[in-house]
Design a protein that fits this description.
InterPro entries: HMG_box_dom (IPR009071), HMG_box_dom_sf (IPR036910), PH-like_dom_sf (IPR011993), RTT106/SPT16-like_middle_dom (IPR013719), RTT106/SSRP1_HistChap/FACT (IPR050454), SSRP1-like_PH1 (IPR048993), SSRP1/POB3 (IPR000969), SSRP1/POB3_N (IPR035417)
Subcellular location: Nucleus, Nucleolus; Nucleus; Chromosome
Largest sheet: 8 strands, mixed
Shape: extended
CATH architecture of one domain: Roll
GO molecular function, one term: histone binding
CATH class of one domain: Mainly Beta
Organism: Certhia brachydactyla (short-toed tree-creeper)
Strand order of the largest sheet: 4-3-2-1-7-6-5-8
Family: Belongs to the SSRP1 family.
């Protein structure tokens, strides 16, 4: 037979809540480790008095009773594991694992038995229900009636707050059954009563959570925080850990008390009590006990008269009363020589302390993460600046903590610490990469998929691509529409014919008149394309190739219907979350298959994009040339109409000398000549119809066009 038995996903019932963890049975005893808090319950084999196997809501359960009256309940076993457990108990603990079934008749009349820390309500020999007396917060009596009040369970949606028992009168003289019932409950109940004097009192201590100044009264079994508005009574049994942490300024000290269950202020729960002390503040303390009592109770850990720093006195008294070690920072030293790192968690700035067995962040909100519950850590690039980085921690339960805005100089020290503790680093690389380039930081979503972040990245890439496409398109249009060489040639071609016609007629003033419209036409031609430039940025070309999808998006499109069929009625948000979990759990080989498909799609996209860009450039050039030609023809037709009268007169003159004599014309003559342009056009058309004279320079220019 094996010397040990181990069970995962076992639930321990503590004060009405079910805490999951791991159970280990060995020759020495029973050990249960809470997955949430890391607290370990160790039951020695010599202390076990009874073991009971029974059917419960989560399958089958094991109830262990010790010789000093404590009861431990563990649920989540399978029915087939009874034989293995029964044989193990016989061989190593010399105990019979008894089978007892609960009574399910539904009767409310029975007998009450007090056994250790349990109140058991039985019908016959079968128990109906059991109440751990440590859950009782108050016990009151009435006529033939006892009322039990319970602590509120913060982990449950619905909590049982009160139970009333009717106790019938008995004929025995001198014994009140109601009072006897109440005394049995109160002897084991978790009822805090501030009776007697406090061992010592610390006045006006600064408390960060809950915020304010409190008087701390130290009693033998609990701690009393007395403030102006609120009072808290904290049993020492709820204290999990004690921390003493130096502030970065080396002038202050944090004293942190971890609590489970937490203290409550309205709907707010405080899992940590954080006190802030100045190193310069001293105190002389006298315990409210005689020296013999102090020696007997604390065995030299405390003395009746003590003096020293205030934080040392508080931590020393708490250590002696709670009987737990005080955790201090280990060998870690940051870039500035401090034992902590300045960072931000959520919206507040604070200090992160690397400890020997975990991390603790103070102070708002306080966070304690043990190494054994960390799945991996991740060094990520800072979101706002390259002078800082983020430190991410993900636990085995899937909870992620991101400590941001850590100075870049802290990277080497923190990396060495994490590496020495053998924590799994998600984006492990060369440490020197930080010194060479900050881009050596891997993306925090390299292996873990976040559906929302993936979508944001895709949209960002599309926007960036659109911006690049629109800037390229506008640049091409500007180059093709504005070409100084071509533009000057067009102007020269258009107005040279008019200039030759005017020179043949010897009209010097008309030559000056012709040059003015040329300047106007050039200005108009420059301005028109620039007005149309923003039109290319209005929208994306629908004929452009679509961007390729990432490996995850290809897999999601192929697997979406399967996920819907496996989870009928799943919402879009839950589907994205579920898809992210499946992608994260997928093996590396399967991911590589989708990476290859994504790479093929990317190559096809680049090839199609090259073909599209070549075609779009050719179309834009053809469109610009056709527009130029059309504008040129319109201006030539307009120029012909304006110069027709002068051209017809110069062509009909026989001798050049006669033309030279008529070269001077007044403004009135020019205006009257232009006003009769319609008649001149009619005469020219008749002359052209009657005979075909030699082609003028005007005709040759139009033919060349």
């Amino acid at each position: 037979m094996a010397d040990t038995l181990e069970f995962n996903e076992i639930y321990q019932e503590v004060k009405g809540s079910m805490n999951d963890g791991r159970l280990r049975l060995s020759r020495q005893g029973v050990i249960f480790k809470n997955s949430k808090t890391g607290k370990v319950d160790n039951i020695q084999a010599s202390e076990l008095a009874e073991g009971v196997w029974r059917r419960v809501a989560l399958g089958h359960g094991l109830k262990l009773l010790t010789k000093n009256g404590h009861v431990y309940k563990y649920d989540g076993f399978r029915e087939s594991e009874f034989d293995k457990l029964s044989d193990f108990f016989k061989a190593h603990y010399c105990l019979e694992l008894a089978e007892k079934d609960l009574c399910v008749k539904g009767w409310n009349w029975g007998t009450v038995r007090f056994g250790g820390q349990l109140l058991s309500f039985d019908i016959g020999e079968q128990p109906v229900f059991e109440i751990p007396l440590s859950n009782v917060s108050q016990c009151t009596t009435g006529k033939n009636e006892v009322t039990l009040e319970f602590h509120q369970n913060d982990d449950a949606e619905v909590s049982l707050m009160e139970v009333r028992f009717y106790v019938p009168p008995t004929q025995e003289d001198g014994v009140d059954p109601v009072e006897a019932f109440a005394q049995n409950v109160l002897s084991k109940a978790d009822v805090i009563q501030a009776t007697g004097d406090a061992i010592c009192i610390f006045r006006e201590l600064q408390c960060l959570t809950p915020r304010g100044r409190y008087d701390i009264r130290i009693y033998p079994t609990f701690l009393h925080l007395h403030g102006k508005t609120f009072d808290y009574k904290i049993p020492y049994t709820t204290v999990l850990r004690l921390f003493l942490l130096p502030h970065k300024d080396q002038r202050q000290m944090f004293f942190v008390i971890s609590l489970d269950p937490p203290i409550k202020q309205g709907q707010t729960r405080y899992h940590f009590l954080i006190l802030l002390f100045s190193k310069d503040e001293d105190i002389s303390l006298t315990l409210n006990m005689n020296e013999e009592e102090v020696e007997k109770r604390f065995e030299g850990r405390l003395t009746k008269n003590m003096s020293g720093s205030l934080y040392e006195m508080v931590s020393r008294v708490m250590k002696a009363l709670v009987n737990r070690k005080i955790t201090v920072p280990g060998n870690f030293q940051g870039h500035s020589g401090a034992q902590c790192i300045t960072c931000s968690y959520k919206a507040s700035s604070g200090l992160l302390y690397p400890l020997e067995r975990g991390f603790i962040y103070v102070h708002k909100p306080p966070v304690h993460i043990r190494f054994d519950e960390i799945s991996f850590v991740n060094f990520a690039r800072g979101t706002t600046t390259t002078r800082s980085f983020d430190f991410e921690i993900e636990t085995k339960q899937g909870t992620q903590y991101t400590f941001s805005s850590i100075e870049r100089e802290e990277y080497g020290k923190l990396f060495d610490f994490v590496n020495a503790k053998k924590l799994n680093i998600k984006n492990r690389g060369l440490k020197e990469g930080m010194k060479q380039s900050y881009d050596e930081y891997a993306d925090s979503d390299e292996d873990q998929h976040d559906a929302y972040l993936e979508r944001m990245k895709e949209e960002g890439k599309i926007r960036e691509e659109n911006a690049n496409d629109s800037s390229d398109g506008s640049g091409e249009e500007t180059d093709s529409s504005f070409n100084p060489g071509e533009e000057d040639d067009d102007v020269a071609e258009e107005f040279d014919s008019n200039a030759s016609a005017s020179s043949s007629s010897g009209d010097g003033d008309s030559d000056r008149e012709d040059k003015k419209p040329a300047k106007k036409a050039k200005i108009v031609k420059d301005r028109k394309p620039r007005k149309k430039q923003p039109e290319s940025k209005k929208g994306k070309d629908p004929n452009a190739p679509k961007r390729p999808m990432s490996a995850y998006m290809l897999w999601l499109n192929a697997s979406r219907e399967k996920i819907k069929s496996d989870h009928p009625g799943i919402s879009i948000t839950d589907l994205s979350k579920k898809a992210g979990e499946l992608w994260k759990a997928m093996s590396k080989e399967k991911k590589e298959e989708w990476d290859r498909k994504a790479e093929d799609a990317r190559r096809d996209y680049e090839k199609a994009m090259k073909e599209y860009s070549v075609g779009s450039k050719a179309d834009s050039h053809r469109g610009e040339r056709s527009k130029k030609k059309k504008k040129k023809q319109e201006k030539q037709v307009k120029g012909k109409g304006d110069k027709k009268g002068a051209t017809s007169k110069s062509s009909s003159s026989k001798s050049p000398a006669k033309g030279m004599s008529d070269s001077f014309k007044s403004k009135e003559f020019v205006s009257s000549d232009e006003s009769s342009s319609a008649e001149s056009k009619k005469e020219d058309s008749e002359d052209e119809g009657a005979a075909s004279p030699p082609p003028s320079s005007e005709d040759s220019a139009s033919a060349s066009d």
